[in-house]
Specification:
It is built from 25 helices and 28 strands. The chain starts with a strand and ends with a strand. Helices cover 31% and strands 18% of the residues. The radius of gyration is 25 Å and the shape is globular. Pfam families: Molybdop_Fe4S4 (PF04879), Molybdopterin (PF00384), Molydop_binding (PF01568).
C-alpha cells in the first residue's frame, strides 16, 4: 500500500477552492481516495473548502456513474464500443439533417460545461460541424443579462466587472447569496471571511432579497423586496443619486450619461417604493450611504437576472457603480486580468442576428433562449427540431416548464447525450457517451479565473489514472467530429489537446513570454498550489471593445426597455410569488446522488410566511399543492419568517423520482422540481432570459 498527496482545485462550483487529496494505491494497483481537505498553501482559497468538495470522491466511486457508451433499446440499456457509438451518432444525426435541414438538430449545453476545460476547448470541434442555429445552454436560465449588458456597454460579453471584495467599504448585494453559492460571476473562495472582513475594517454589508438568506443573516442591513421588482429599487436609487447631486467623476470615457440622467429622473424613490415594497426613505438612504462610502460595490446576481427585467437590472447595477465613481476603481468593481484571457482571444459576441422559429426570441452569441426549446420540438413545420444533443445538462429539471420539455424529448427522432448519468433528461436519449470522472483528467479554469476577485492561475493535474477504455470529454468530441465528417464528406481541421491550447494561451497572455513571469504550462506545473498574480486593478479603459472606445452608458435597447418597465401594471398584492433558493450542499440538479450531501435535515420544502399560511388555513409540515399556469407539484410546507409576506420559496434542482432515472440516492430523496411550475412564457423580453423568480402561484392543501 502506497500513499501519495495531490493538489488541485475543486471545480464543482465557481469558487475553485484548492484541495489536498490523499490517495492510496493497493497491492492490485487500484487507487482509493483516502481524504479530501482544503489546501492551506493555495494563495486564493487559503485552506477553505465547502461540503461539496467531498462529492469529488463520491462521483469517483458512485456505482450509478456510467463508464462506457450506452445505447437504449426500448426500456433497457446496453453497453457498446466507442467506434460503434460514434458511427451510430453520426449516421442518425446526418440522416435527420438530410431529411429535415441543418436546424432540425438542436444542442443544449449544461452548466458543468464551463467547469471542464475539455468541453470548453473541444465541444465546438464537433458541434460546429452541425451548422445549426438551434443552439441553447444554461446561460439563458442564469446569467444572460450579465453578458448582454457587458456586450452593449463595454463591447464584449465577457468583460464583466466583479466586486473588489477585499478592498471595498460598502457591499450592496441584490439577488445573490454567496454564502450558499460560494460566489457567482464573482469567483471568491472563503467568501464568508471576506464579507466579515468588510465589516471588521468598518465597512458595511447590505443585502436586498425577498428572503432573509444565509448572507442576509450576517449583513448589517437586510431589506425585503417584492420579487421581480429590483429594477424599481435600482431606478429609485439612481434617480436619487442624480437629484441629490451624489454622483462622482470617473476617469473612463463615457458616452450617453446625460441621456441616462434624463431618462431616469422621473423614476423617483417615491414613485418606485410602491412597486418594490421598499419605503422611499429607505431607498434614498441606501443611495446616500452607497455614495458616501469611499469605495463601494453594487453586485446583482442570479435573482435579479432571472426576472422580467433582468437585463434592465444588470444595466442599472452597472450605472450605479459608474455614476458613483466605483466602476474600474480599486474597492469598487474591476475587470480581472487572467493569465488566459477570453476577452482578448474571443469575439465580443452578437445579438439578435436571428430569432427562434416559433416565438421570434433573439439569439445572443449564437444561442437562442432555452425557454424556446420545447416549442421548437413540439411545433410542426419547416425547421422543427427532430434531434437533440445534450452536453452535461439536465434541462428537464433546469429549464422552465420541464414537463413540456419532457413531452418534446419523448417525440424526438434521435437524442444523443454526453453525460455521466441516466438522469431526468438523458433517460430519453438513444445514446449516452460518458467521459472520465473529474479526478481522472487534468483541468484549467478558463472561465472562473476570468471572474476571480484576484488575478490567479493554476493547472490541475489528474489525480487518478485514466481507466482503460475510457475517453476524456475532448476525446469524445474528436471521435464524434471524425465520424460525422467522414459520414458527411466534410473536411476536418486539425486540432490539438487542451493542454497545448492552454500552454499557448499562457505564453501569449499578459503574464507569458513577453512578461517577467514568463508563464507556461510547465511553469504552472512547478506551482501545484497555484499562483497569485496580484490584486485587481483599473484596466477597463484600455480593454473596451466598443466601436468608439467609450463606455456606452445609454444603449438604445436599454433606454427603450425603461418604457416597457414604466408601462408594466402593478401586480396584485394578494398574489403569491414563487422564488428559488440555494444551499451550500447542492449545485443545481447534479449534487443529489451523494449521501454525504443529501443527508441531514431535509431542505426540499416550501418556505411560506406564517401570516400567509394562517390566511389559507395551512399548518406547519402539511402537504400542499403549489399551482401555476403550467402545472402543479406537491411538497411539504414550512412556516418561516425568512420569507416576506406574499412570497414562497422552493429550491431548484429536486424532483428526481421519475421512471427510468438510474440515480439511486437522488431518486429516493423527496422533493419536487420548481421548474414544473416556472412558465416558459414568462421572459425578460429584451434578452429572452427565463423568469425563475416572481412566478405567480397558488398554494392550497394537498
Amino acid at each position: 500500500m502506497t500513499t501519495t498527496l495531490h493538489h488541485r482545485a475543486c471545480h464543482l462550483c465557481e469558487a475553485i477552492c484548492g484541495l489536498t487529496l490523499e490517495v492510496e494505491q493497493d497491492a492490485d494497483g487500484e487507487h482509493h481516495i483516502r481524504s479530501i481537505k482544503g489546501d492551506r498553501d493555495d494563495p486564493f482559497s487559503r485552506g477553505h473548502i465547502c461540503p461539496k468538495a467531498v462529492a469529488l470522491q463520491d462521483i469517483q466511486s458512485d456505482p450509478d456513474r456510467l463508464r462506457q457508451p450506452m445505447r437504449r433499446l426500448g426500456d433497457r440499456w446496453e453497453a457498446i464500443g466507442w467506434d460503434e457509438a460514434f458511427a451510430l451518432a453520426a449516421e442518425r444525426l446526418a440522416a435527420v439533417q438530410a431529411q429535415h435541414g441543418q436546424n432540425a438538430v438542436a444542442v443544449y449545453q449544461g452548466n458543468p460545461s464551463v467547469h471542464n476545460y475539455g468541453l470548453m476547448t473541444h465541444s465546438n470541434y464537433f458541434l460546429g460541424l452541425l451548422k445549426t442555429r438551434n443552439r441553447y445552454s444554461a446561460t439563458s436560465v442564469d446569467q444572460l443579462p450579465h453578458h448582454l449588458t457587458s456586450h452593449l456597454m463595454y463591447g464584449h460579453g465577457f468583460l464583466i466587472p466583479v466586486p473588489d471584495i477585499d478592498h471595498t467599504d460598502f457591499m450592496l448585494i441584490l439577488g445573490g447569496n454567496p454564502l450558499a453559492s460560494n460566489g457567482s460571476i464573482m469567483t471568491v473562495p472563503d467568501v464568508e471571511k471576506r464579507l466579515k472582513a468588510i465589516q471588521a475594517r468598518g465597512g458595511r454589508l447590505v443585502v436586498i432579497d425577498p428572503r432573509r438568506s444565509e448572507t442576509a443573516a450576517i449583513a448589517d442591513q437586510h431589506l425585503f423586496i417584492r420579487p421581480g421588482q429590483d429594477a424599481a429599487l435600482l431606478l429609485g436609487m439612481l434617480s436619487t443619486l442624480f437629484t441629490e447631486g451624489l454622483s462622482r467623476a470617473t476617469h473612463l470615457p463615457i458616452g450617453g450619461l446625460d441621456e441616462v440622467k434624463q431618462a431616469v429622473l422621473p423614476f423617483s424613490a417615491e414613485r418606485m417604493a410602491s412597486r418594490c415594497g421598499v419605503p422611499a426613505l429607505a431607498i434614498r438612504q441606501l443611495a446616500r450611504d452607497f455614495a458616501a462610502a469611499d469605495r463601494a460595490v453594487c453586485y446583482g446576481r442570479m435573482g435579479v437576472s432571472t426576472q422580467a427585467f433582468g437585463t434592465l437590472c444588470q444595466w442599472l447595477v452597472q450605472l450605479i457603480n459608474l455614476v458613483t465613481g466605483n466602476l474600474d476603481r480599486p474597492g469598487g468593481v474591476l475587470c480581472t486580468e487572467p493569465a488566459v484571457d477570453l476577452v482578448s482571444t474571443m469575439s465580443g459576441g452578437h445579438f439578435d442576428r436571428w430569432q427562434s422559429r416559433v416565438s421570434g426570441l433573439p439569439e445572443y452569441g449564437g444561442e437562442l433562449p432555452v425557454s424556446a426549446l420545447a416549442e421548437e420540438m413540439l411545433t410542426p413545420g419547416d425547421g422543427q427540431v427532430r434531434a437533440l444533443i445534450t452536453v452535461a445538462g439536465n434541462p428537464a429539471l433546469s429549464t422552465p416548464n420541464g414537463r413540456q420539455l419532457e413531452e418534446g424529448l419523448e417525440g424526438l427522432d434521435f437524442m444523443l447525450s454526453v453525460d455521466l448519468y441516466i438522469n431526468e433528461t438523458t433517460r430519453y436519449a438513444d445514446l449516452i457517451l460518458p467521459s472520465t470522472g473529474p479526478l481522472e483528467h487534468d483541468h484549467y479554469d478558463t472561465t472562473f479565473n476570468l471572474f476571480a476577485v484576484r488575478n490567479v492561475t493554476r493547472f490541475n493535474e489528474a489525480v487518478l489514472p485514466k481507466p482503460q477504455g475510457a475517453l476524456h470529454d475532448w476525446e469524445i468530441f474528436i471521435g464524434l467530429a471524425e465520424a460525422f465528417a467522414a459520414r458527411s464528406g466534410v473536411a476536418l481541421k486539425p486540432t490539438q489537446p487542451p493542454q497545448q491550447m492552454i500552454d499557448m494561451g499562457l505564453r501569449t497572455g499578459r503574464y507569458g513570454d513577453g512578461s517577467p513571469l514568463k508563464l507556461s504550462l510547465q511553469a504552472l506545473r512547478e506551482h501545484p498550489h497555484g499562483l497569485d498574480l496580484g490584486p485587481l486593478g483599473a484596466n477597463l479603459a484600455a480593454r473596451l471593445k466598443t466601436a468608439d472606445g467609450q463606455v456606452q452608458a445609454a444603449p438604445a435597447l436599454l433606454l427603450g426597455d425603461l418604457q416597457r418597465f414604466a408601462a408594466q401594471p402593478s401586480g396584485d398584492p394578494k398574489q403569491l410569488l414563487l422564488i428559488g433558493r440555494r444551499h451550500v450542499r447542492s449545485n443545481n440538479s447534479w449534487m443529489h446522488n451523494y449521501h454525504r450531501l443529501v443527508k441531514g435535515k431535509p431542505r426540499h420544502q416550501l418556505l411560506m410566511n406564517p401570516h400567509d399560511m394562517q390566511s389559507r388555513g395551512l399548518s406547519d409540515g402539511q402537504r400542499v399543492s403549489i399551482r401555476s399556469r403550467v402545472g402543479a407539484v406537491e411538497v411539504e410546507v414550512l412556516a418561516s419568517d425568512e420569507v416576506m409576506p406574499g412570497v414562497v420559496s422552493l429550491p431548484h434542482g429536486w424532483g428526481h423520482g421519475r421512471p427510468g432515472v438510474q440515480m439511486g440516492i437522488a431518486s429516493a430523496t423527496p422533493g419536487a422540481s420548481a421548474n414544473d411550475l416556472t412558465d416558459e412564457r414568462l421572459l425578460d423580453r429584451l434578452s429572452g432570459n427565463a423568469v425563475l423568480n416572481g412566478v405567480p402561484v397558488q398554494v392550497v392543501a394537498a
